[in-house]
Every structure is written in structure tokens, then in C-alpha cells.
Amino acid sequence: MRIALTPRVDAMLSDLDIYRAAHLMLHQYGDDAELEAARCADRMFGRGDREETLTWFRICRTIAAMRQVPAGLPH
Fold first, then answer.
1. Are 26 and 1 in contact (CB under 8 A)?
2. How confident is the model over 11-29, as pLDDT tens digits?
3. Helices (H), strands (E): how many in the chain?
4. CA 37, CA 61: separation in Å to the nearest integer?
5. What is the pLDDT of residue 2?
6. From CA 7, how far away is CA 51, in angstroms rounded?
7. Is the Cα dihedral 1, 67, 14, 59 positive or negative?
8. What's the start-to-end Cα distance of the chain, in Å?
């Protein structure tokens, strides 16, 4: 699956776009979603694409945060 991250070169993705990308990554890669996002960031870093690298790190952090959401009700 390829996720198109930036519709325009000068456009920064919104938090909602990052959340959606993270959700898609979790759906497709499951437990490996965070690792796959880090791999994408590494590829973009290797290409010298700073903006895409930062975007993938945002997705990676969002995946990690989504995993920490408590499942039950607070006591």
C-alpha cells in the first residue's frame, strides 16, 4: 500500500491527515505499523527529503500514541 502524503509540495499535512495515515498503517501492518512508518521515514531521509521524513516521524509518533489509549473505563 502506498500512502500519498503531500498533495502539494508546499502543503503541510494536518493533524487529521496524520491521524488518518496512522490509522491506515495500523490497519494494514498491525503490530508492525510503527516499524513500517520508521522504515518509510528512513527511506525519505536517505533521499534527502526532509519534509517527508518529518511527516513519517509524525505518523510514527501518532501510531505509538494510538496504541497507548486505555481500553477500559478509568477507576
1. no
2. 678 999 999 999 999 999 9
3. 3, 0
4. 9
5. 55
6. 13
7. negative
8. 40
Question: What are the CB-based long-range contacts (under 8 Å, 24+) for 24-30?
Answer: 25/59, 25/63, 26/63, 26/66, 28/1
Q: What was the pLDDT predicted at 18?
A: 97
Q: What is the mean pLDDT of residues 40-66?
A: 96
What beta strand segments (E) does 1-75 contain? none
How far out from the chain centre does Cα 25 lie?
7
What is the reported pTM?
0.77
* Residue 17 Cα distances to 47, 50, 71, 74, angstroms: 23, 18, 24, 29
Which one, of 41, 11, 46, 45, lies nearest residue 25 by Cα?
A: 41
Report the C-alpha gap between 58 and 2 in whole angstroms.
Answer: 17
Q: What is the pLDDT of residue 68?
A: 87
